[in-house]
Amino acid sequence: MSKQYLTLHTVDQAHPTEIFSLAPTPNALISASGSSHLLIHSTTTSPTFPLTQTLSNAHRLGCHHITTARSGPGNTFVSVGFGGDTKVWHRNPETDQWSLYWTLPTPANKKEKGDVWAVALSADEGYLAATTSDGRIHVWDVLGKEKIQSYETGASAGGGGGGHDSVGTGSFAMAVDLSRDGKFTASGHENGGVYVFNNDAGRMVYSLSGLAKPIRAVAFSPGCKRLAAAGNAGIIAIYDMQHGEHVANLSATGTRPAWITSIDWNDTGEYLLSGSLDGKVRVWDVARGVCVATHSETESALWCVRWLPKSDKALAPGMGKGEMFVAAGANRSLTFYREATGS
User: What secondary structure does DSSP assign to 16-70, as a single string?
Assistant: First the structure.
């Protein structure tokens, strides 16, 4: 059984350069590119998704990652620039405008020289996980503005995890996610490694196998029972979090798989969204292990795909309230899709 999604609207040339990252809130979409500006578009007021705010000169050399809390209140997002700067932004609920709250300090410890790469926010927006180019994962208390945990994936970690005193150099940590229940942190690495840490115990609990090529995206399911990981192998690996078992692979048939650059679970955990280097957006039925929808609006690389939170009202007369998602990448545009049978 397939699902049908229709192209709802495209914001052409939304950015002057390639769009590298997207982050939705309950009523907006934040986008980042190789330019210095961050853009915020409304996702609940009009099917044209109008621009509502521009954060000028947010990152002088451009921005490669932004993150919001999935199913969170939508008052915080974090951005990481190509210059190594990591910034936390807060929304004023009275004006609905965003402003800079805090810039993470540059590590003074020479043993922690790796630049921040990927970031993830906890569901309550209280904690930030950030990976580094030397394989570490740091967890920060956002309101307290302090680092509270560091995980090590280098040789000295010994498969048992890290703490504040662990040292060593690991493989480039290209992806990170926090489970919505706050229990786990997962990271994906350039060497194909996928690691899962128990945040309460402060240690590594799983070193997951299955993909030997660089991991570009990791994502916990909404119920925190599954972890999806994908990257240069062109396969989405699904892991069970109760026992750390590799339980399934999702892959397209017929052609050599393209690198998968981005994945995202829908709110029910039934479907996974993926974007790849060949410009294709795919929707996967996880239980059945099959692709149920494919869109190829562009042949340019897609760098990010995201489901949008469901709205309480339709965007326009005649439109249902079904699921929507957005894709962006090298063509510099934002393309929005809606479920054809939503009601």
Answer: SS-EEEEEE-SSEEEEEESSS-EEEEESSS-TT--EEEEETTSSTT-EEEEEE-T
